[in-house]
Specification:
This protein is mainly α.
Length: 144
């Protein structure tokens, strides 16, 4: 009789080894065949799409813009902001909100700064907790 551990071992193969080494080779599927059959015509197809788009065909223009050209990503400009030095974190947060309100910072830039400020607050909190814990441990050791 086969135990469950023996049964599990028989169905396993080594890491990095295919479970079906004689399986289908890459690039032999239907999609790969279709791509290979139209590959030589792709430049002409794109030229025709451009011509149609220039003639006012909205579908051709949309297809070109969606599929041929990569989507454009917004680029934010570098902005220099002076936060109050040696001020508490809430004062610095208020300065960031004020910069967003006046248009010095974009909302996404302000969000990134406020997130960073929140992370800094957690780091400071951990530092203070570590200092307090060390002080308590030292006080406890001195009592012994």
């Amino acid at each position: 009789m086969i135990t469950t551990t023996e049964k599990k071992k028989r169905g396993r193969w080594k890491s990095g080894e295919s479970g079906n080494p004689k399986g289908r080779k890459p690039g032999t599927g239907e999609v790969a065949k279709l791509r290979a059959s139209i590959a030589k015509d792709v430049p002409d197809i794109i030229k025709q799409l451009v011509i149609k788009a220039k003639e006012g065909d909205a579908q051709a223009a949309r297809l070109l813009l969606e599929r041929v050209l990569p989507p454009m990503k917004p680029i934010e400009q570098h902005v220099e902001i002076n936060l109050p030095e040696n001020a508490d974190l809430s004062t610095q947060g208020q300065a960031i909100f004020q910069a967003i309100g006046t248009g010095t910072l974009t909302p996404s830039q302000g969000n990134a700064l406020l997130t960073s400020l929140g992370t800094l607050a957690r780091v400071i909190e951990l530092d203070e907790l570590e200092k307090r814990l060390t002080a308590l441990e030292d006080a406890n050791e001195s009592k012994k």
